[in-house]
Amino acid sequence: MSGATLAVIAIAVAWSVAVGLVGAALAWTVRRRSVRWSAAILGLVAVAGIAAGVLGTARAMFLSDHDFAVVITVCAVSGVVSVGVAVWLGEQVVASARRLRDAAINFGEGGEFVGPANGPREFAEIARELTRSSDRLRSSAERERHLEESRRELVAWVSHDLRTPLAGIRAMAEALEDGLADDPARYRAQMRTEVDRMVRMVDDLFELSRIHAGSLQLTPQTVALGDLVSEAIAWADPVARSKGVRVGGSVDSGVLVRGDPDALARVVSNLVMNAIRHTPSDGAVEIHARATPAAVELAVTDACGGIPDADLGRVFDVAWRGGHARTPGDDVGAGLGLAIVKGLVEAHRGTVAVSNRAPGCQFVVTIPA
Ligand SMILES: Nc1ncnc2c1ncn2[C@@H]1O[C@H](COP(=O)(O)OP(=O)(O)OP(=O)(O)O)[C@@H](O)[C@H]1O
Ligand SMILES: [Mg+2]
Predict the structure, then answer these.
(1) Exposed, middle or buried by CB within 10 Å (0-12, 13-18, 19+), for 245?
(2) DSSP 8-state secondary structure symbol assigned to residue 114
(3) 0.70 cut: is pTM over it?
(4) For residue 180, what is the DSSP state?
(5) Which candidate, 273, 261, 148, 144, places its Cα nearest to that of 204?
(6) Which of 170, 193, 211, 326 could disulfide-link 343, Cβ–Cβ 3.0 to 4.6 Å?
């Protein structure tokens, strides 16, 4: 390479770098302004770098004045064109950013993000992320609304369920006080039954609120499922006998489950009591438990005649209790038992499911081994 060529390269580098540095400084000063400024500076620097190189090396290249004027004219024209294109590109980016911003504003106001149809890939990625957040937000708002609704329903039902027996107890107490009760012993027994029912309900509500607040204190131990089931059967036996319902079952020998013994006993007894309550006399309730490689499974099957398909998804809802009218005196529960079962089973990282199985339905609890 000749010395003249080297000199030309050196001069061109020096001028272009100088222009580049000035361009970088300008870009730095406008970094917080609209992107269209950066785009314009980019277009300008690209051409100004070439023009400066040519100007600087004009003498070394031995250009005639005419050629020099031609080169400068070409540079000026292409400068205008490239700045124009750069500004246009900048405008496209600005327009895309505006569309994204408007969609984000609507998102903030309406709670739903509808991303712009087109735009550069980076913006499309942001839009995709926002759409995902919007979906998550919508489903959590939906959950929140559902929860709030069931909480309101629960308060209404619970106050009804407490007010009715309380009114009955007050009437009976007044009758006893006034000596108007024709059968005082029966009144006292009935008052006792009502109070027991209310105590049970308040206990259930307390348990449920602890489950929902996440303040449940579980003490996991290794529990023999056979013991758990036979205790539940023994406990439910008097009720089953008085109704004429047979309760039986089988548990694979040596099935162990890790969990809180009281909570698990509660799960089994709630399911068994429900099964007995909904099985007509002469019907049978079966409890089976077995161990699979990954989990322990407990199934309670009854002869309730089946749960309507539309209700299958609701039985675990708080305070839901089928088609029973909430009339005082009849033996219907508060609709808390299965919500407690679900909460306790989930606290053991397990699942509970219900399905119809002639002549009744089956509740299956699965707890990971
Ligand atoms: N084994 C079952 N067979 C048929 N229906 C059932 C059975 N278990 C529950 N159900 C239905 O699901 C509803 C909710 O059951 P859940 O145990 O939560 O409440 P409950 O038994 O009515 O009251 P609580 O358990 O609070 O005393 C019941 O009212 C009933 O309609
Ligand atoms: Mg129940």
Answers:
(1) buried
(2) -
(3) no
(4) -
(5) 273
(6) 211
**Domain extents in the chain:** 3-119, 219-369
Please name the residue that has the structure tokens 């407690």.
340
Which ligand is located closest to the Cα atom of residue 341?
A: 1
Query: What own/partner pairs with CB < 8 Å and gap ≥ 24 does 203-212 have?
Result: 204/334, 204/336, 204/337, 204/340, 205/158, 205/334, 205/336, 207/266, 207/340, 208/318, 208/336, 208/339, 208/340, 208/343, 211/340, 211/343, 211/344, 211/347, 212/343
For 166-220, the pLDDT digits (tens) are 999 999 999 999 998 888 999 999 999 999 989 998 999 999 888 888 888 899 9
CA of 201 to the centre of ligand 1 (A): 14
- 289 in contact with ligand 1, CB cutoff 6 A: no
In short, whether 332's Cβ falls inside 6 Å of ligand 1 is yes
Best of 202, 203, 247, 315 for a ligand 1 pocket test (most atoms within 8 Å of beta carbon): 315
pLDDT in tens, 316-331: 988 888 765 544 445 6
- For the domain bounded by 219-369, which CATH number is listed? 3.30.565.10
Please tell me the number of Cα atoms within 13 Å of 173 on its side-chain side.
Answer: 10
SS3 226: helix
Q: Which amino acid is at 165?
A: P
pLDDT mean by block of 10 residues, the chain; 369 residues: 80 88 92 89 88 78 80 87 91 91 90 83 91 92 88 83 89 92 90 92 90 88 92 92 93 91 94 94 94 94 94 89 58 84 95 95 95
